[in-house]
TrEMBL record:
Residues 1-54 are annotated as: Disordered. The keyword Hydrolase does not apply. Belongs to the FlgM family. GO terms for biological process: bacterial-type flagellum organization; negative regulation of DNA-templated transcription. The keyword Repressor applies. This is Negative regulator of flagellin synthesis.
Length: 116
């Protein structure tokens, strides 16, 4: 009966120190990926799979997107000449602003976020 009443305590300060594996390292070991043997394939198919690359066909949308990305990557990110022209017009007070058009664009922009 005395053996049941006696509790043994573990010093948790020692966890993770040298010689005592920490709880986190034990969990990491449990989560480690299991290496599996490749599943056996029927005779004759192993050689074919190794010599021929898999076939891949892109959709029309994917091809268009590839072309757009390639085209955009060759263009400069900012048209510095246009920026300088607009900066000069704004600084000189000669940049025309259509208040009605600007207001419509602001409303359209805000509507995009309101509908979300």
């Amino acid at each position: 009966m005395r053996a049941l009443n006696r509790l043994s305590y573990m010093d948790i300060k020692q966890l993770g120190t040298t010689g005592t594996p920490s709880v986190d390292s034990k969990r990491a070991e449990q989560r480690a990926p299991i290496e599996r043997e490749p599943s056996p394939q029927p005779a004759g198919k192993q050689d074919v799979a190794r010599t021929q690359p898999p076939e891949l066909e892109l959709s029309a949308e994917a091809k268009t997107l590839q072309k757009a990305i390639a085209s955009a990557s060759t263009q400069p990110a900012v048209d510095q000449n246009r920026v300088e022209r607009l900066r000069a017009l704004v600084n000189s007070g000669q940049y025309p602003v259509d208040a009605q058009s600007l207001a419509k664009k602001i409303i359209q922009f805000e509507q995009q976020f309101k509908d979300r």
